[in-house]
Amino acid sequence: MALRDRLAAQIAATGPLSLAEYMTICLHDPHAGYYATRPGLGAGGDFVTAPLVSQMFGELIGLWAAACWRAMGAPPRIRLVEMGPGDGTLMADLLRAGAAVPGFIEAADLWLVEVSPPLKALQAERLTGATPRWGDNLDQVPEGAPMILVANELLDCLPTRQFVRTPQGWAERMVGLTEAGDLTFGLSAPLPAGGRAGEMGAVYESSPAQAALGAQIGARLAADGGAALLIDYGPGAGEAGGDTFQALKGHQKVDPLACPGEADLTFHADFEGVAQAARAEGAQARPLLTQAEFLQRLGIEARATALAASRPDLTDQLGRQFDRLTAHDQMGVLFKVLALHGPGFIPPAFEAD
Question: Is residue 102 one of the residues assigned to a domain?
Answer without folding.
Answer: yes
